[in-house]
Amino acid sequence: MELTTPWIILVVYALALLFFDFFVLHKKGSLPSTKKAIYETIFFVANGLLFSIVIFWFYNSQLVDNPTNLTPDKAVLNYLTGYIVELSLSVDNLFVIAAIFASFKIPLKSQHRLLFLGILGAIVFRAILINLGLVLMNKIQGMSIVFGLFLLFTAIKMLKSDAEHKEKDQSKGLSKYFRLTKVIDGEKFTTVVDGKKVFTALFGALITIEFTDLLFALDSIPAILSITTDPYIVYSSNIFAIMGLRSLYFFLSSMLEKFAYLKYSVFSILLFVSIKLISSQYFHIPEWFSLSFIALSLGIGIYISTLNIKKLQLNMLL
Q1: Per DSSP, which regions of the chain are E strands?
Q2: Widest CA span of the chain, in angstroms?
């Protein structure tokens, strides 16, 4: 029973945060503002970082299963590194979410609800994919090299792609499987058009977000497995990173294009973790170095993006 207690605490903690977010921070009909999104982002990031104290306590007290024999200090380092990796890889996801909302013409007041439901689905699907990834890593020798090469391919493909996600009609592919309309009928997922029951644009956007998260999970899960294969750290870092994504979206939604240099930070992180996975059977990269490299990559991306924003503002004044 003792070894299941940390999992129960993690699930209850996550559900409590989601409940607080949906029913307290975002009452029905309220519109998210940039200022509010900043406070919410700080709140969720703080919760993610503070959970490292809980991680230390669990591993120090031997309350959690520890298959990789991590010391409490290493467990905390792996958790923080994994959390920052997952949060940084989510930045690219924000650009896609913005394109999905634009394509389906989702009003601002409905976007939070869709992201909330998307988070619930992501938590379930990530658990399945994480378990699958861990089984493959433990059962198949050299699987880390396969994951590393896949991430390397993803990084190169991302670098070659356009810096901006062009607005596309996301409903075309879904129309093959669902009777879909571009009509938005309040907060409903189904409505009646010409006497026929059809799915609304809200449903189309939600399904697209869920499918997109599955695609991004194919990158993020091998990335976290390059840091650690401890199930508790992998899943907890994923949960807190996903929960922070929603508030982060509303904080950056009006500035995504201006923060385009963050994509190069994500590229460097993907490149680093791919090299770490490929080389893991030959030499070990210290946890402190991984955390430092990832933090430095993000810091440089944010700094250059900030300089670019100031340059754009200066050009507008001239």
Answers
A1: 190-193, 196-199
A2: 67
pTM of the full structure? 0.78
For residue 171, pLDDT beyond 60 = no
Side-chain half-sphere CA neighbours of 111 within 13 A: 25
- Which residue do the tokens 């900030």 mark? 306
- Give the pair of three-digit tokens for residue 80: 């923080």
Using CA atoms, how far apart are residues 74 and 157, in angstroms rounded to an integer?
A: 33
Token pair 């385009």 is found at 260
Phi and psi of 147, rounded to 5°? -60, -40
Residue 304 near residue 261 (C-beta atoms within 8 A): yes
Could you tell me the end-to-end alpha-carbon distance of the chain, in angstroms, rounded to an integer? 67
CB 34 within 8 A of CB 250: yes
Q: For residue range 232-285, list pLDDT tens digits in order.
A: 999 999 889 888 777 777 776 656 556 667 778 878 877 887 887 788 777 777
Per-domain residue ranges of the chain: 2-317
User: Residue-wise over 153-178: b if at least 16 C-beta within 10 A, else e?
Assistant: ebbeebeeeeeebeeeebbeebeeee
R_g over Cα of the chain: 20
**Is the separation of the CB atoms in 269 and 151 below 8 Å?**
no
Q: Which residues pair with 199 in a beta bridge?
A: 180, 190
24 secondary structure, DSSP code:
I
CA distances from 88 to 72, 83, 94 (A): 24, 9, 10
CB 60 within 8 A of CB 267: no
* Contact assessment for residue 234 and residue 10, using Cβ atoms and an 8 Å cutoff: no
Q: How far is 18 from 44, CA to CA, in rounded Å?
A: 10
Cα dist. 167→92, 157, 263 in Å?
15, 19, 18
